[in-house]
């Protein structure tokens, strides 16, 4: 549980941005929480790097709204070069946002110009809030910016602009009497590389007819390899509207703000008049930039799930409902990263600061505390961690064990045997050099023994690599136990689980300056 000093990013709440609807308008809007505004966003071309495109945003209120709040968001790869009446944008998350209050007593059309600055998936998104009761209206244009003219595309398959509908999606044929939706979901790494968001909740939503309630027609998870999805459902009618919702919740882990229990959500633009027998390709969808790091944290959890074992839950002891590991994060968070076990089950959770998801090691480290909590069924040893506690220095035997375990899981899952901080500073957990007392402790000069987190972490990773065939036997040895220290685990619970503690194995641990050879 390491703390970091983070620059805060201010994000206004939905309630703060909302203006009340006039009483006369509310009667003509759809029943809450449906949107009170229809929106449409189109680009006149697909810009390559260095090129520009004109965006046209149509806003059609379903009832007069004197004060609506409009936000236009751009990713880091697009820049607002001709604002067309929009205010100057401010930085928000990994991109920018231009916000203003608009009069929607009648329909409005806004035109602005965006210029592509880097290649990769990009999403221009407009959000209109009318009040706190009605759902915000959203419109988006998603494209993949090419590095050279003519190389930009929409969708996942290189569809050209002429084949794209007004909402930026393409339709093809599906089996008779059904509708299918397909595409993929991606997030941006800190270096700007686009990666799939895997195991995210994905659902096809829409309306069968104008004014009918929103229905979820099909749901599932994005693909574990490429973040793709293809969901189909039976229908013989033409759908009035259809869109896809993504939720940062796999059923076994979630990422949510501090202010609500609901996981983060993201939506595609809606497709209209979708006939039976149609397959709608929504292409590549990316989160709004202020959510980007949260989705990165969500996807990082797929790495931990991949090594947890074969049980359907985080612990083989769970035979009914599975405990969900919850991560609390938002773009303006300044908390020190930690696992909060001060609250009662099942509300224990990870809390992260704004930039913490930039380090996958940090996310996995904190989630590994949650994994230990699940394995030991909510029991924890009394903490003897000093403040601050550092991985290369003597802390306490219980601190060395719990923090060393979390570091070991992070170093193993990432495959590098390291702990990497948000600022890029690395600790090589596999360092076996003994402490040089003539030098100050450092990233390469660790204190010795099992009260040092990095030493415990290195010993565990060595056991997993050379003796146990991975961490699962250690996880299983913790199920239902109350393990206070690494020494207790190695000398009592490890042999009790049938794991090797021979002289050769003790020698491996001794390489990490932990001496149990005669114990």
Entry keywords:
519 residues; Immunoglobulin-like; 3 domains; five-stranded mixed beta sheet; 9 helices; 30% strand; disordered N terminus
Please explain how this structure is put together.
The chain is an alpha+beta fold. It has nine helices and 25 strands. It has three domains: 14-153, Immunoglobulins (Immunoglobulin-like), CATH 2.60.40; 167-286, Sandwich (Immunoglobulin-like), CATH 2.60.40; 308-510, no CATH class. Helix 3 packs across helix 4. The longest helix is centred in the C-terminal third of the chain and has 18 residues, at 397-414. The strands form six sheets. Strands 5-6-3-8-9 form a five-stranded antiparallel beta sheet, with no helix packed on it. Strands 10, 11, 12, 15 and 20 form a five-stranded mixed beta sheet that branches. Strands 13, 14, 16, 18 and 19 form a five-stranded antiparallel beta sheet that branches.
């Amino acid at each position: 549980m390491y703390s970091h000093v983070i620059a805060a990013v201010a994000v206004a709440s939905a309630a703060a941005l909302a203006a009340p609807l006039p009483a006369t308008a509310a009667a003509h809007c759809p029943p809450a929480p449906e949107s009170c505004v229809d929106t449409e966003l189109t680009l006149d071309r697909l810009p390559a790097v260095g090129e520009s495109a004109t965006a046209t945003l149509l806003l059609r209120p379903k009832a007069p709204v004197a004060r609506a709040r409009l936000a236009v968001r751009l990713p880091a790869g697009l820049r607002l070069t001709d604002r067309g009446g929009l205010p100057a944008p401010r930085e928000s998350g990994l991109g920018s946002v231009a916000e203003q209050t608009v009069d929607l007593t009648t329909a409005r059309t806004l035109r602005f110009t965006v210029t592509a600055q880097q290649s990769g998936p990009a999403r221009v998104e407009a959000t209109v809030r009318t009040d706190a009761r009605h759902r915000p209206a959203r419109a988006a244009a998603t494209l993949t910016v090419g590095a050279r003219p003519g190389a930009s595309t929409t969708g996942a398959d290189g569809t050209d602009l002429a084949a794209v509908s007004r909402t930026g999606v393409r339709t093809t044929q599906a089996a008779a009497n059904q509708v299918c939706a397909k595409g993929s979901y991606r997030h941006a790494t800190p270096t700007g590389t686009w990666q799939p968001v895997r195991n995210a909740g994905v659902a096809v939503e829409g309306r069968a007819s104008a004014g009918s309630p929103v229905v979820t027609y099909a749901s599932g998870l994005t693909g574990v390899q490429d973040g793709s999805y293809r969901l189909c459902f039976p229908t013989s009618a033409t759908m009035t509207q259809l869109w896809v919702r993504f939720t940062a919740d796999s059923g076994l882990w979630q990422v949510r703000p501090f202010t609500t229990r609901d996981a983060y959500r993201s939506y595609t633009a809606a497709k209209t008049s979708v006939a039976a027998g149609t397959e709608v390709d929504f292409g590549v969808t990316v989160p709004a930039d202020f959510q980007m790091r949260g989705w990165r944290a969500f996807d990082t959890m797929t790495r931990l799930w991949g090594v947890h074992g074969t049980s359907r839950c985080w612990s083989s002891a769970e035979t009914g409902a599975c405990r969900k590991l919850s991560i609390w994060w938002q773009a303006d968070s300044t908390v020190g990263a930690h696992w909060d076990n001060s609250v009662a089950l099942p509300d224990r959770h990870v809390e992260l600061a704004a930039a913490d998801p930039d380090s996958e090691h940090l996310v996995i480290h904190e989630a590994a505390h949650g994994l230990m909590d699940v394995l030991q069924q909510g029991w924890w040893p009394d903490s003897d961690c000093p403040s601050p506690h550092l991985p290369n220095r003597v802390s306490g035997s219980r601190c060395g064990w719990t923090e060393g375990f979390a570091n070991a899981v992070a170093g193993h899952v990432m495959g590098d045997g390291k702990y990497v901080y948000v600022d890029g500073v690395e600790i090589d957990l596999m360092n076996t050099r003994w402490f040089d007392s003539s030098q100050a402790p450092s990233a390469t000069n660790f204190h010795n023994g099992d009260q040092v987190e990095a030493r415990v972490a290195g010993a565990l990773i060595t056991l997993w690599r050379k003796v146990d065939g991975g961490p699962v036997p250690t996880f299983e040895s913790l199920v239902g136990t109350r393990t206070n220290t690494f020494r207790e685990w190695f000398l009592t619970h490890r042999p009790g689980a049938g794991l090797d503690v021979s002289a050769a194995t003790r020698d491996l641990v001794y390489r990490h300056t932990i001496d149990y050879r005669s114990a």
